[in-house]
Amino acid sequence: MAEFHNDDAVLDIHDKPKPAAWFGLSLQHLFTMFGATVLVPRLVGLDPGIALLSSGVGTLAYLTVTKGKIPAYLGSSFAFITAMKMLMGSEGYPAIAQGAITAGVVYLIVALIIKKNRFGLAR
């Protein structure tokens, strides 16, 4: 893959922030993650503990698959709240689980297509 350098960046891709900045950024990430991971289940009537456990397991699986090259946290998404609220009122938990699994399978298929074709990305 081609090397990329941004002269305007405060930190480059491989740079590490100073401890004080790192701590501040970590707190920012924690509050953002916690807000989304707890608020989304609360809004649709699900248990936040399940969301925290699921996001932790999903994140560990993701880091294992990517070998830690892409540090990311996988958590709740506000994108599906409307569908989950609708399903919770009419169909219940099984329909929400089926929707989540279906979305995951679609994401996996799209990721495999992108990996296979690269769509003009440097090889």
UniProtKB/TrEMBL annotation:
One MF term in the entry's GO annotations: nucleobase transmembrane transporter activity
Key word Ribonucleoprotein present: no
UniProt KW keywords: Membrane, Transmembrane, Transmembrane helix
Keyword Chaperone listed: no
Cell location: Membrane
Any GO CC annotation of this UniProt entry: membrane
Pfam families in UniProt: Xan_ur_permease
Spans traversing the lipid bilayer: 20-40, 46-65, 95-114
Domain of life: Bacteria
Membrane association type: Multi-pass membrane protein
Primary site of residence: membrane
UniProt name for this protein: Uracil permease
Organism: Enterococcus canis
Lineage of source species: Bacteria, Bacillati, Bacillota, Bacilli, Lactobacillales
